[in-house]
Amino acid sequence: MMEGLIDIASWLLHPAHWSGPDGIPARAWEHLALSSVALLLALLVAVPLGLLIGHTRRGDLLAINLANLARAVPSYAVMVMALPLTLSLDPRNGLTIYPIAIAMVLLAIVPILVNAYTGVRDVDRELVEAARAMGCTESQVLRQVELPLAIPVIVGGIRTAAVQVVATAALGAILGYGGLGRHLIDGIARREYDRLWAGVILIAGLAILTEVLFADVQRRLTSPGLRIARTGAAAEASEPR
Length: 241
Description:
Blueprint: H1 2-13, H2 24-56, H3 60-72, H4 75-89, H5 97-121, H6 125-133, H7 138-168, H8 181-190, H9 193-221, H10 224-238
C-alpha cells in the first residue's frame, strides 16, 4: 500500500510529467477548456428557460419531467447516441470532442434548469404581488425581485453542474479527446498504474477545487439578510421540542 502511494507521488512530482503536450498542465487546460465551454452552453440554455418557467409557472411539469429523464440517461450512453450525428456533420472531429461536449451540456442543463426554476418559484409571493401592485412590469418583477432572491439557489445549481461536468469530462478520453482522462486511459493501456491513479487524483482534486470555488461564489452572492434568515431557521429547526 505504502509503496503504491510512493509510486503515485513520484509520478506526480516527476518534472517530465509537468511539461509537453501530455504534461499535467496541458491536460488540465484541455480538461478545463472543455468543461468551461460545456458549462457556458448549458447556462445559456438552462438559466433563461428556468427563469421563464419559474416566473410564469407554465410548462413546469413538462420541464421537470424532461430534466429527470435526462438525468436518468448515463453520459456515456449520450456520447454513443450522439456519435452517428456528429460523425455525419463533421467526420474529422465527430469522433472526439463533439459527443462528449453534447453529453456534458445535457448533464449540466438539468441541475441549472431545476434550480433556476425552483429559486424563482419559491420567492415569497407576497413580495411579487407587492411589486406588481407598485406598477412593476413582469420583466421588472423578475429582474428586480425574483432574480436577486433566487441567485443563491441558481448558483447552487451551477455549482452542482460544474462539479459534474469536470468529473464527466474524463470520459472524453475514451473517444480520443485529451484532458486529464488521458492519464486514466493511457495508464490502463500501458499498464502504468501509477499514471492511472495519478489521473484519478488529479480529476478528483480538480472537482473538489471546483466545488470549493463555486461554494465561495454562492456564499458571496447570498445577501447578508438571507444568510441570517437561513441561519435562524436552521437553529430553530434544530431546537428540541
